[in-house]
Automatic annotation (TrEMBL), chains A, B:
It comes from Pichia membranifaciens NRRL Y-2026. Signal peptide: none annotated. InterPro entries: Amidase_Cbmase, Bact_exopeptidase_dim_dom, Peptidase_M20. It comes from the Eukaryota. This is Peptidase M20 dimerisation domain-containing protein. Belongs to the peptidase M20A family. The lineage of its organism: Eukaryota, Fungi, Dikarya, Ascomycota, Saccharomycotina. Transmembrane segments: none annotated. Keywords: Hydrolase. One of its GO terms (molecular function) is hydrolase activity, acting on carbon-nitrogen (but not peptide) bonds, in linear amidines. Pfam families: Peptidase_M20.
Length: 416, 416
């Protein structure tokens, strides 16, 4: 907990929400100067514990703590140190620093595990600055190529690439970013829930069985820039009016299918008071517990977009649109054996009444690792379900309980 | 026409829409380097004709061509040389350069008018970079103060002020910006229509009797930043969803009242794919032919905003909002005598069949000058009614006809 707050203070504290010095969020965008600083710090801390470090060609850092049978593939654990621009102190960070605390605990107690243990800081999980979530863990898992991610552009300047930033901050490593060349035997991740369920049920530990399917569709609607003062409503081809109909429409679709659909990133051209918007670019984020549910939401959202493009509220001339519709992250089902290890560890730490089987609303690096190695996750409660907001908070006692479940799980797995 | 194209080429050509070199728009934002360059050029050109120059403390340039009775207040004509970011070659520019052509014609023909004639380049008519339209003409007319406009901030960086830019480009003049200290006897302005009416009616000259009332309201809706992957639709306080309902709602309101209502400038916080928008800022542009009509639109738009803020599509917790609701530009009624001068001049140039009495959809510097001196305006057709778009176009023959009506009007007024 001290390390969570001291690293927040050193590397990107932002967004004051209360009078205490720890009551701020963190803004530490992937591959920024602050991300470099926290990566440097992470390497220094793990080296102090006797870890050997590998940085791969996508900026992932693997800190390997030696085991008795040191030529075996290591037990993996990890999460991410990058944050949202309006991020809190816990999202991702809690997972990496709990892993660090596991290694510190082994070291302090002079425990040598049977197998090596590798703690990973996955690069750009958030997808906030470079709009692909689980970026570098997806390359490691083989579902994205390094060329694809190198070309991604900073959403703020639409220019700076991932490759440029990896080089600039010195994290374009030499290790191949690939689960075959640089293997883990499994992947454990602990994370804050970022949603309201554990708190509402008054549970302390979430034992995750999987995560929602989701997809991010990039959509551009083209209208016609015209003067707002001289163009009658019935003559218009207003790309923002069409987008407004899409925003309200997808909201209904999500509710119908008991899933999620959100438009939260949007830009206008030309974005001037008295010019009817000629172009709107936005991202549609859709999610569902099942792959079939996601497919239904997608289909109905596409119908909403098509309907809005007919421009019935304007001059009835169709507004062209483009959709970049990548392959979705499918619903994740975690490894039965690992889920059991976590479930037993949770029972040992908090008892049967305070643990809860659930799935994750958000995507996590574990969704990528699960594609290639046995993976499972632990959740701790988030106050009011708030995340991606400086006010994100988990009680210190709950952070402690979660850490103990992670430690227990790693030791049980190592012993099995 | 040559001057229109040569100045476009020299000072900000942008937005290619056809293969000809003249087929681009112009981007020359108020008080930018390009605006300085065109102002310098304007002064050099008018000085060549024997004009004396005054720059006032709001960046307006007055070029005074001498008359026989040179101690009289001058006949005024003017428009603006700043453009929209996606502007065309004619909006404002056509008015200033037609005025220049009037002066050139007098000079070439050795005509000394009875009274001095002052051509004005009004500063920041568009309100695109600094969001107040008719900015410096409104100060001259006494309805805005120079302190108010000095403090306006560049909408792109939310930092640079008008005062800073006036100083930087050397156009913080010494003449008082005031119709009393620096008077005109009247104000004539020629402008492209920027709408579809003249073209549809197959008329060549619009004789303007007035202009619409309008207002720009700055609105901020506050929601709650939360994770899009973990926050159920029914738990959300989505500021963009509320804004979408406002956008579709005001569209209906405008149609009901046969007026205009547009949202064309909008920004989100935090503007990230997977964070429910916590804040949306936008400008609502409302217009009507009459002041009463504008008041009705305003009232009904405020009701739409209130209704959307109830957040019924989310968790039903009200979303707070703020509205900055400045005093509207009232409906303009131009001076009867000047309208007659233009009407007679138009009859002389194009005949009774090709002129049309109408009012302006857009605001113009003449709406400001009309508050303090007799004012009237001339329109020429806009192809497809398109403006605030690089494709803005008026046929060369129509530009020529308009110029001849302006020249005729100035001479008639001078002779009367
Ligand atoms: N945990 C998290 O915020 N991941 C980012 C990807 C997502 O939006 O689910
Ligand atoms: N003519 C023109 O575009 N003026 C700017 C003010 C307005 O939007 O009407």
């Amino acid at each position: 907990i001290d390390t969570i707050h001291s690293t927040a203070d050193m590397f990107g504290a932002k967004g004051v929400w209360g009078p205490e010095p720890t009551q701020t969020g963190v803004c530490r965008l992937a591959l920024s100067d602050l991300d470099k600083q926290v990566k440097d710090w992470f390497i220094a801390e793990t080296e102090k514990l006797g870890c050997t470090i590998k940085v791969d060609e996508c900026g992932n850092i693997f800190a390997r703590y030696p085991g008795k049978y040191d030529d075996h593939a290591p037990t993996g654990m990890g999460s991410h140190l990058d944050t949202q621009p309006t991020g809190g102190r816990y999202d991702g960070i809690y997972g990496v620093l709990s892993g660090l605390q596991v290694l510190r605990t082994l070291k302090e107690n002079n425990i040598t595990p049977n197998f090596p243990i590798t703690l990973v800081d996955w690069c750009n999980e958030e997808g906030a600055r470079f709009a692909m979530s689980l970026m570098a863990s997806s390359v490691w898992a083989g579902v994205k190529t390094k060329e694809e991610i190198y070309a991604l552009k900073d959403v703020y300047d639409n220019e700076t690439t991932v490759l440029h930033e990896l080089k600039r901050i010195g994290y374009l490593g030499e290790t191949k970013c690939c689960h075959k060349a640089n293997p883990l035997k499994c992947h454990f991740e602990i994370h804050i829930e970022q949603g309201p369920i554990l708190e509402e049920l008054e549970k302390k530990i979430g034992v995750l069985t999987g995560a929602q399917a989701y997809n991010w569709l990039n959509i551009k609607v083209t209208g016609m820039s015209q003067h707002t003062g001289t163009t009658p409503m019935e003559f218009r081809r207003d790309a923002l009016l069409a987008t407004a109909k899409i925003i309200t429409g997808i909201n209904e679709v999500a509710k119908q299918h008991k899933g999620l659909a959100s438009i939260a990133k949007l830009s206008l051209l030309p974005d001037v008071v008295n010019v009817v918007p000629g172009e709107v670019d936005f991202v549609l984020d859709i999610r569902h517990e099942t792959d079939e549910g996601l497919a239904h939401i997608r289909k109905d959202c596409l119908a909403v977009i098509e309907e809005a493009s007919l421009n019935k509220a304007g001059n009835g001339t169709r507004l062209p649109y483009t959709i970049d519709d990548p392959y979705p992250y499918p619903a994740t089902h975690f490894d039965k054996t690992l889920v059991d290890v976590i479930d037993q560890s949770a029972a040992a730490v908090v008892g049967d009444d305070l643990k809860h089987k659930m799935y994750s609303g958000a995507g996590h690096d574990s969704c990528a690792t699960n594609l290639v190695v046995p993976t499972a996750m632990i959740f701790v409660p988030s106050r009011n379900g708030i995340s991606h907001n400086p006010e994100e908070h988990t009680e210190p006692e709950d952070l402690e309980l979660g850490f103990r479940v992670l430690l227990e799980s790693i030791l049980r797995y190592d012993a099995a």
